[in-house]
Design a protein that fits this description.
It contains 18 helices and 11 strands.
Length: about 500
């Protein structure tokens, strides 16, 4: 499982390999690239009768393939009060089925049901504010039942099977928008993958639920409460989004996780883990016809299901600068962000270009002006997020060089933002952006996993994987006037949220 789910982005600018060397490598591996990003002529797609979308890119070479299975459901789809359900479910889907994860399901089943009943009863006592003695007795009963069930539980069953089959990179991750399950395997193991993953969709058993919930609680303490970057990023998003669920942490709030009901996680599973809500990309030494035949065999009989309505609160217009200080015993840093639209809004592409100009690589404006010339920051980075399905943020973070303060870095950032409004970007800078975009695109083509990830991301987020190459053409069409217009519209003080990490104040100091 991806233990980094929901963690804050890196402050470090993106690094790019020389464009020419990447292009030469790509031409050697993918000759069709010379004819202009020939993905549309090579990617094949098929939709099962139940709605599951399959994308296949056949590649000669090493006899391996990468499978990227993405469900269009994340923390943004959770019910208020049950934050963390999507991430918890990701953990639970590694626990097996009636055929995997148990030495004897017929004997484990009554013990599993007993554990669930006792755990639900204990949660009910805690919610009702029952006295400590009753809670202690109920907790001891649950602990005893868990120990009995554990005698039949086989831990890490998926990892063991995949590892024995030569699999690498077996993992999963939950984001605001999606939940993904990934693996790379020898090409002759595709049927094994299909059999295991279809079984996981059809027959999941959320065994060890209450014990795993405690694991997630500890993960939250480690990644958020006890880590400066995680805590700052969490408070930043909570301040920037006051209505939209992007303001909730992916892992969930502590109080929600502590009593996250088993029935709610099961409801979440049944509602969203249906074939019409999943896209699978398979890239590597496979044949399209074989993939389709195998997918039909193992996934075709899963009922289509009906997705719930996606009702998400629209974030109200900010209408004023917001600031929040987060106390932590760590070096000072800050994050500032501006609300912005997402695809298909035309301004989204302009933000991609602005991101490259300001923060991508050693020749970016932030690195050249703030880090090297003014020497007020160790690093300054930028990114967009926290999701892509709904209007999000263009975020900037920086770490000051002592004795400079976060305010000094923030002021330097504002100076660069103002330049975007008043000084047209040169043709050389725009050319550099295009080179970097194409380099990043080529880099994504090189690995099977990178390509599978790109295909599923664009299919799920934009509705069409073909937008991978269409986006590059749109970036090439961005003009200096577009950049000035967008900078003036969005980089304003009434549209900014600033979260600053500060040293914890001494309570005795007056």
């Amino acid at each position: 499982m991806d233990k980094s789910s929901g963690s804050s982005p890196s402050n470090q600018p993106r690094k790019f390999l020389p464009v020419l060397s990447i292009a030469l490598l790509c031409l050697a591996i993918f000759p069709s690239f010379a004819s202009g990003y020939d993905l549309e002529g090579r990617v094949k797609e098929h939709t099962l009768d139940n709605g599951m979308k399959i994308l296949v890119l056949e590649r000669a070479g090493a006899p391996i393939f990468a499978a990227h299975m993405v469900f269009k459901v994340g923390s943004v789809d959770e019910v208020s009060g049950h934050a963390g359900a999507a991430h918890m479910l990701e953990h639970m889907l590694f626990k097996g089925t009636t055929t995997l994860g148990s030495t004897d399901w017929s004997r484990e089943k009554p013990l599993f049901e007993k554990v669930i009943a006792l755990g639900n009863a204990l949660d009910k006592l805690k919610r009702s504010g029952a006295d400590k003695e009753k809670i202690k007795i109920a907790a001891n009963k649950l602990k005893t039942a868990q120990a009995e069930q554990k005698k039949y539980v086989v831990s890490e069953s998926y990892s063991r099977i995949y590892s024995a089959a030569g699999g690498v990179g077996f993992n999963a991750g939950t984001s605001k928008d999606t939940t993904a399950y990934i693996i790379r395997l020898p090409a002759n193991k595709f049927e094994l993958w299909a059999k295991i993953e279809s079984d996981r969709m059809k027959d999941p058993i959320l065994r060890e639920y209450f014990a795993e919930r405690d694991v997630v609680m500890e993960e939250r303490r480690r990644s958020y409460e006890n880590r400066a970057g995680g805590k700052l990023h969490e408070r930043y998003l909570a301040s920037a989004f006051i209505g939209h669920p992007y303001g909730r942490p992916i892992i969930g709030w502590e109080s929600d996780i502590a009593l996250l009901p088993y029935p709610e996680v099961m409801r979440f599973l049944k509602a969203w883990y249906v074939p019409s809500n999943v896209v699978v990309a398979v890239v590597g030494a496979v044949k399209f016809e074989d993939v389709v035949k195998t997918m039909e065999k193992y996934f075709g009989d899963i009922p289509a299901g009906k997705l719930p309505d996606r009702v998400v609160t629209e974030e109200p217009r900010q209408g004023g600068e917001r600031r929040v200080d987060v106390e932590f015993d760590a070096s000072p840093t800050f994050i500032m962000g501006f609300h912005k639209p997402v695809y298909p809004h035309e301004d989204e592409i302009v933000f991609e270009v602005i991101n490259y100009i300001l923060a991508s690589g050693r020749t970016s404006r932030f690195d050249q002006e703030i880090v090297r010339k003014k020497k007020v920051a160790i690093s300054v980075g930028a990114w967009t997020g926290p999701g892509s399905r709904y209007p999000n943020l263009f975020s900037i973070s920086g770490d000051p060089v002592p004795p400079h303060t976060t305010r000094d870095v923030e002021n330097a950032v504002w100076e660069e933002l103002e330049k975007l409004k008043t000084e047209p970007v040169s043709s050389d800078e725009l050319r550099k952006v295009i080179n970097n975009v194409e380099a990043g695109f080529i880099r994504g083509l090189v690995s099977h996993y990178g390509m599978a990830r790109l295909l599923t991301h664009y299919e799920v987020m934009t509705g069409d994987w073909r937008n991978i190459t269409h986006e590059i053409e749109k970036i090439k069409a961005v003009t200096p006037d577009d950049i000035q217009r967008v900078a003036k519209k969005y980089f304003t003080h009434d549209n900014v949220t600033v979260a600053t990490l500060v040293k914890k104040k001494n309570e005795k100091t007056k």
